[in-house]
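pls ignore typos typing on phone
zinc ion + seq
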Amino acid sequence: MDAAEQDAWRALATERVAGAGLRLGAARVEVIEFLAREGQCLLGASDIVARLREQGGRAGQASVYRILEELTALGLVRRLVDESGIARFEIAAPGSHHHHFIDDATGEVAPFSDPELERAVEAAAARAGFELSSHEIVLRGRRTGTRSAARSSR
Ligand SMILES: [Zn+2]
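k done
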């Protein structure tokens, strides 16, 4: 995600938050600014709180958690809850579309994108007579370090 996409998400966030009748107070602005800079891939709420604090942020933990929920409800942030119930957040922006691997052993989350997978998802939706608004794919397993060669397109 480049600077222009970050700006676009920040502008959208500001507009939707104001449109929802929420005040753009210091804590909300802090969280929105932070996510525009660093929220491209899944971060735990407690990590977000810690990073904000390191950066001199003043929003308290309860405020940050509440704001993350608000932004999720407004469709600005995606929330992914893992099997142990830990919620992680990332911004929902067109330029940040990707999916996730979760390592069963370590819980590590790694982003990936795969054009072939996107085409397969769209084709599956079309076959089912379904128009997609969004989709999320989580692959769980174990990292082997071995990659297969990309299949050539037909
Ligand atoms: Zn991600």
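The two ends are 29 Å apart (CA to CA). The longest strand covers residues 77-81. more later
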